[in-house]
């Protein structure tokens, strides 16, 4: 588990730096949590299955496939838009095409930097797919990333890194949910025996 | 806040109610919420189905609430124990969305529609009519089934609340 934590640390560290550069603000990052969690609890970590969140989803393809989510609370998403793109947010409830497109691109950049640092570190080939964005209930969104685990049991391995900006204007999560088959490959790539 | 008469159904979980109580499951994405109801004896059941078929299960001991082909028979038998009759049951379905427009070309993409198809096949086997459904599209749903009235309430972020 420590190895996976380190993997999460490196990936998220790069993503946090990228986010910090984009926003021109310091971004704090919590030490990643790495855990096998029951499905229900995975949703709890973003405030419950019914909480509306904005999520950018990418499928990781290559040697160690998995699912990746960048999740922002709705207030945070609007703050990111204000801070970063200088967009005048017109409607707090609705998102315009331009806003969604900007957020999608941010997710893309962050996920890309997370993954490329992981790929460098593990020397595994990991490619992100084109990102896809949804604003919906956390449960509905995250359950999508748990389907591969669904065939194995009722728990999934979650690498969860939380981001915070100074005044808590930007709060987000990075979830990496490697497919069950991928752990072995990540461990092998790092020269550690699977637990 | 959860009231006392709420009966929670988690992901890959199922439960039944008799006379009173509201069965509730939150955040259905590609999963399907199946509700069965026998209005004569007021027995209701709800399953949060995650995958279409237990044949793909690789887990040691299969969680029967997770798969359409195992959850529905289990739901029926638990309702029968409370006095329901399969010949009087009616079904309502919600969920089975495709949450992300693009997500690679794997089969996982179509899991929502497949879950719905599989649930309907099982219901057909037991000749349980589907009385109402709100399935597909690309949004998540939270559902509540009122055992007293037989009304299914569906809530979504974008579309608000509807009853059927």
Automatic annotation (TrEMBL), chain B:
Official protein name in the record: Probable chemoreceptor glutamine deamidase CheD
Protein family according to the UniProt entry: Belongs to the CheD family.
Phylogenetic classification of the source organism: Bacteria, Bacillati, Bacillota, Bacilli, Bacillales
Keywords, comma-separated and alphabetical: Chemotaxis, Hydrolase
Top-level division of the source organism's lineage: Bacteria
Function: Probably deamidates glutamine residues to glutamate on methyl-accepting chemotaxis receptors (MCPs), playing an important role in chemotaxis.
Organism: Paenibacillus hexagrammi
Enzyme nomenclature, EC number: 3.5.1.44
Catalytic activity: L-glutaminyl-[protein] + H2O = L-glutamyl-[protein] + NH4(+)
Keyword presence, Magnesium: no
CDD domains membership: CheD
SUPFAM superfamilies: CNF1/YfiH-like putative cysteine hydrolases
Pfam families hit by this protein: CheD
InterPro entries in the record: CheD-like_sf, Chemorcpt_Glu_NH3ase_CheD, Cytotoxic_necrot_fac-like_cat
